[in-house]
Write a structure and sequence with these properties.
It is built from 8 helices and 9 strands. It has about 250 residues and is α/β, with parallel strands linked by helices. The chain has a 7-stranded mixed beta sheet with strand order 1-9-8-7-2-5-6, with helices on both faces. α1 packs across α2, α2 packs antiparallel against α3 and α5 runs parallel beside α8.
């Protein structure tokens, strides 16, 4: 369930771009539009069909949803999100890791392409990333790491963004936390070897993306596909549409 912010929305806002060295871009709802009400059920339906030799597809789908919820809220920081998922499937559905990986590979090569029509890129997404590169900022694809890398790369390719020079792409293979957990942002900054004030988070989710602000990261909320969740929401340092952010990033520096 989504809801409106408790505080009134703040159009525009101010950013201090002088210390910025890296920009963390969310993917879904930020650089691309995905009809998640159709994408997730279709994704699960096709994937669980590949696993029906182990358990009933409806049971596997229920467990996968539970595991994703656990991944989003986990503060453990020991296992990768992939290992969390594999452990849960083994425990709850008796699906061994090698069985899941084999089924996933078949799904990714044969079924995932059928979902391409549910994903479209924003026409200014490339310009936003390239504007950061022009400023010698490091672009990061800070998508919530609940999907395997191949599924993230597919969405980038469908949107025509797969050639952009992201220095880091967070996926369930390399992440120990998910957004909105602070550990997620700390791990990204540690990988980049950057302080919070050197990072800028750009996203559309007032909880998952804007929670980076708790750590001192400046935040931008892109509003066309804005998500306000039933949990905690945060105020962005800046908010507006893609064209407005692009104009800001393209301003000449002194």
């Amino acid at each position: 369930m989504f809801r409106f912010l408790r505080q009134p929305p703040k159009q525009g806002g101010s950013l201090d771009l002088a210390p910025v060295k890296a920009v963390l871009f969310d993917l879904d709802g930020t650089l691309v539009h995905v009809d998640m009400q159709a994408f997730i059920p279709a994704y699960l339906r096709r994937l669980t069909a590949r696993l029906e030799n182990f358990a009933a597809p409806n049971l596997i789908a229920k467990v996968l949803r539970q595991l994703v919820f656990e991944m989003l809220s986990s503060t453990e920081g020991v296992r990768t999100m992939e290992q969390h998922l594999l452990d849960g499937l083994d425990e709850k559905c008796n699906i061994p890791a090698e069985g899941y990986v084999a089924a996933l590979e078949e799904f990714l090569s044969e079924d995932l392409p059928e979902l391409q029509s549910l994903v479209t890129g924003h026409p200014l997404a490339r310009d936003l990333v390239e504007a950061c590169v022009e400023r010698d900022w490091v672009p990061v694809l800070a998508t919530n790491p609940i999907f395997p890398r191949a599924a993230v790369e597919a969405r980038l390719a469908w949107a025509g963004l797969d050639d952009l020079p992201f220095a880091l792409v967070t996926t369930y293979e390399n992440a120990r936390y998910c957004k909105p957990q602070h550990g997620y942002f700390r791990d990204v900054m540690s990988t980049l070897e950057l302080a919070p004030e050197a990072c800028l988070m750009v996203g559309n989710d007032t909880e998952q993306d804007l929670s980076a602000g708790d750590l001192g990261v400046q935040t931008c909320l892109l509003t066309p596909w804005r998500i306000d969740r039933a949990g905690r929401s945060y105020r962005a340092d800046w908010e507006g549409e893609h064209a407005e952010l692009l104009a800001l990033l393209q301003q000449k520096t002194a």
